[in-house]
Amino acid sequence: MVKLYLICRDCKAIEHVGFGDYDVDSDTLKVEEKDVSVSSIIEFLVKHRYHDVSLVTEWTADAEYML
């Protein structure tokens, strides 16, 4: 399991929105609806409309010094 975050690079905001399963062999991320907070995702996207927003793993968030 890997933590998933929404980040806004314009505001330097970050929010934990759920979990995903990363498969090293196929280099893919599997996310199921039951493992994420859809309402939190929508709220974040509305609040940061027109900004540089990305859904990232904890590794990316850490690499960009957002954690």
Describe the overall structure.
The protein has 67 residues and is α+β, with helices and mostly antiparallel strands. The protein has one domain (2-63). It is built from 2 helices and 4 strands, in the order βββαβα. It has helices at 38-47, 58-63; strands at 2-8, 13-23, 28-30, 53-57. It has a 4-stranded antiparallel beta sheet with strand order 3-2-1-4. β2 (13-23) and β3 form a beta hairpin. It is globular and about 35 Å long. The two termini are 17 Å apart. The relative contact order is 0.32. The mean pLDDT is 94.
**Overall pLDDT score:** 94
Radius of gyration: 12 Å
Question: What is the first-to-last residue Cα distance?
Answer: 17 Å
- The count of helical stretches stands at 2
Class of secondary structure makeup: alpha+beta
Low-confidence stretches: none
Assembly level: single chain
Give me the strand/helix succession. EEEHEH
Instruction: Please give the largest β-sheet.
Output: 4 strands, antiparallel
Described by the principal axes of the CA atoms, the overall outline is: globular
Helix share bin: 10-25%
Number of domains: 1
Main sheet strand line-up: 3-2-1-4
